Amino acid sequence: MKRENLHEPFSIEVIETLDVCPKSGHTHNFFELVYILSGTGTQCINNNTSRYHEGHMFLITPEDCHSFQIETTTSFFFLRFSNIYLQSNSIHTDNVQRLEFILQNANHQPGCILKNQVDKSLVHPLIEAVIREYVNRDCYNRELIQHLVNTLIVVVARNISKYMPQQVGEQTDEKALDILSYIQNNIYYPEKIRTEVISKEFGVSESYLGRYFKRQTNETMQQYVSSYRMKMIEHRLLHSDMRMGEIVTEFGFTDESHLNKFFRKNKGISPTVFRKSSRMPV
Q: Is the pLDDT assigned to residue 95 strictly greater than 60?
């Protein structure tokens, strides 16, 4: 299976008309946002399929296997960006943790990621503006494109964080979404995601918070926190060269032994073994 690489922080490509997709199933080491400017067909991600049409936007994360089957002539907009770009100072630091939602809350399934109707109407003119700047190449176009790209990424992060976690359904209360967002934003600070702290933050008792969270998400708060931390740590192991000591510091573990114990409990192997085995060539 072909694997593509990105050798710059981000790139833009506009393909105006395609009747047949030139690529079969493939993976890559970067994130890819695909927006359908026109046309219809089927998208495949990890052997799951979904129909697409004009106005749909898809997020393909690193290592996802994906392809398109075109039914009517399709125009695509591609925005590709690397993990390095997310971690760079190009994006305001207040948004970096929100952008982690892209990395860890995407469900690796096909289908349009824009669930918020307001954002759907926002994305189209943003992409038109990016294409216009990309084609015209006027002065300061690079700076303008970068700001527009950052806005698109944050809009996608907002949709994923509020509407796409697997444990959240259409009937989930707004307060439950706020609690999830709070946990995700503070996952690096164990003292801020204790039950007693969260209950004070949202003005409810600890006992009620536990029952409410389980009813809304079908898992306990402790299960969700552990699961989300694991996803974040796995991402560091797979897609960065961070040392174990740096991961320990970032996620508030007392030492490497504490990290190893947590990881083994959830994964059955040490983080070092996980990193080595996951990076073995196929």
A: no
Calpha distance 250→244 (Å, rounded): 10
Task: Judge contact between 10 and 83, C-beta under 8 A.
Answer: no
C-alpha distance from residue 3 to each of 6, 11, 25, 74, 195 (Å) = 10, 17, 9, 23, 43
Residue 1, pLDDT > 70, answer: no
Residue 93 above 70 pLDDT?
no
> 60-69, 110-119, 158-167: which range is least confident on average?
158-167
- Give the chain's domains with CATH numbers: 2-163 (2.60.120.280), 174-278 (1.10.10.60)
Pairing of strands 57-60, 31-45: antiparallel
* Amino acid in the structure at residue 123: V
Exposed/middle/buried for residue 10 (C-beta within 10 Å: 0-12, 13-18, 19+): buried
Distance CA 242, CA 232 (A): 12
Tokens linked to 40: 């219809």
- Over 70: is that where the pLDDT of 100 sits? no
Q: What are the structure tokens assigned to 249, written together?
A: 């510091």
Please calculate the CA angle 269-218-203 and round it to the nearest 5 degrees.
105
Q: Which residues contact 265 (CB under 8 A, 6 or more apart)?
A: none
Calculate the CA dihedral of residues 85, 87, 90, 93 and round it to 10 degrees: 150
Q: Confidence class of residue 86 from pLDDT cuts 50, 70 and 90?
A: confident
